Amino acid sequence: MQFGNRPFAVSLAGLVLSACAALPGCTVGPDYVKPAVSVPANYKEAAADGTSWKVAQPGDRANRGKWWTVYNDPLLNALQDVLTSSNQDLRLAESRYRQARALVAGARSSYLPTVTAGATVSRFRNSGNAFATPSSNIGPANNFALPLDVSWELDVWGRVRRAVESSEASAQAFAADLETVRLSLQAELAVNYFLLRGIDSERQLLDVTLVAYRKAHELTVNRHEGGAASDADVAQAETQLRTAEAQAVDLRVQRAQLEHAIAVLIGKAPSEFSMPQAGLDVLPPQVPLAMPSELLERRPDIASAERQMASANAQIGVAKAAFYPTISIGATACSTPAAGARCRTRRKPRTTAPSPPTGKRC
Fold first, then answer.
1. Nearest to 152 by CA among 162, 144, 160
2. How far apart are CA 207 and CA 204, in angstroms?
3. CA 27 to mean position of chain CA atoms
4. In the chain, where are the structural domains located?
5. pLDDT at residue 153 in the model
6. Over the stretch 7-31, which tens digit does the pLDDT of each residue have?
7. What gap in Å lies between CA 307 and CA 268, rounded to an integer?
8. Angle CA(72)–CA(77)–CA(81) in degrees, nearest 5?
9. Does domain 68-110+168-281+290-323 fall into CATH 1.10.10.60?
10. Residues 227-232: what's their mean pLDDT?
11. pLDDT tens for each residue of 96-145
């Protein structure tokens, strides 16, 4: 193997490193700093009653756990588990996060040298009419070559560092987006589930009401035939009955819509999914009158927006690095030997006069 001018390459690398050390940080572009927000010392209303408050601290990485278990509903728990493993939107968000992590690994690979290799094979035969050609070198021969190129970009201006910084911030933003999608889908499933159970309770009550209205209508008709009720009484009883029947139709339509929505959320076709009718017989958990402000600290969508801003800020450094020259160190090696050495090439013996394999002069 033969490399380029090694003393020159070493001198060039030393010159580049010296110049990099003289530069302030060797990384162009602005460093990301969270925007400063003017925060008052206290609420104006809090000064009167003496209450205090604290500055918000990000908590989007907190483990939310299976929050729906507070309802103690086994069917809801089973549906939530199916949603976590089968929802298509959630799978899409997870694939985007995995893609972002792969891009981070690709950006970090720029720290390392790039090595390329390729193999070539050639077969040739010297002409027997050439001047001063030994008869032993006329036969066909095989030539094998394995070129190897190594190049390394010196990250003098911080282009690679800024690219890695941007990729990592973007991956964190996709992770926050994944949590946003997961939390939104879980909440939507819980809302649709309890709305459906509420409609089942209304239908149970409406079925009892319909039985009473039918009996009242039948009794009113009988009294009208006996002369004890007027036409207005019959019309009023019939109106009550038809209104209740119309409400029953509306509830059936609403229940079907909610059932289809739940099927889509858990990744199943609406025609293949159905929920048994059951009233809402569980008590809701105790909810405070005022929700704590700490819930805002756990919102992943806010964290995603902040990480996207950090990623865009790092891209400024990548763009500014394009104004400066790219400095790379490269080396090339090949299995073909230098002049004066013998190639590692085997020749095929001549058929007329066998001879041992000989090497080719480079």
1. 160
2. 5
3. 29
4. 68-110+168-281+290-323
5. 86
6. 544 555 555 555 554 444 578 888 8
7. 34
8. 160
9. no
10. 88
11. 999 999 999 999 998 888 888 888 888 777 766 666 656 656 667 777 88
Per-residue three-class SS string for the chain: CCCCCHHHHHHHHHHHHHHHHHCCCCCCCCCCCCCCCCCCCCCCCHHHHCCCCCCCCCCCCCCCCCHHHHHCCHHHHHHHHHHHHHCHHHHHHHHHHHHHHHHHHHHHHHHCCEEEECCEEEEEECCCCCCCCCHHHCCEEEEEECCEEEEEEECCCCHHHHHHHHHHHHHHHHHHHHHHHHHHHHHHHHHHHHHHHHHHHHHHHHHHHHHHHHHHHHHHHHHHHCCCCCHHHHHHHHHHHHHHHHHHHHHHHHHHHHHHHHHHHCCCCHHHCCCCCCCCCCCCCCCCCCCCCHHHHCCHHHHHHHHHHHHHHHHHHHHHHCCCCCEEEEEEECCCCCCCCECCCCECCCCCCCCCCCCCEC
Question: Tokens 């995603």 map to which residue?
Answer: 304
In this predicted structure, what is the pLDDT of residue 139?
66
Q: Which of 251, 305, 238, 298 is nearest to 67 (CA)?
A: 298
Which tens digit of pLDDT belongs to each residue from 198-223? 999 999 999 999 999 999 999 999 99
Angle at 43 between CA 40 and CA 47, to 5 degrees: 120
Strands lying side by side in the sheet with 114-117? 114-117, 148-154, 327-333
Whole-model pTM above 0.85? no
Q: Are 346 and 357 in contact (CB under 8 A)?
A: yes
Give whole-number Cα distances, 187 to 12, 13, 74, 244, 338, in Å.
61, 58, 16, 32, 72
Give the C-alpha separation, 3 to 7, whole Å: 11
Alpha carbons 67 and 318: distance in angstroms, whole number: 42
Residue partners of 108: CB distance under 8 A and separation at least 6:
164
Q: Kindly tell me the sign of the dihedral angle through the C-alpha atoms of 30, 35, 38, 40.
A: negative
Residue 354 confidence (pLDDT) above 50: no
Residue 121 has which token pair?
Answer: 């094979």
C-alpha to C-alpha distance for 193 and 78, rounded to whole angstroms = 12
Residue of 38, 58, 34 whose CA lies nearest to 303: 58
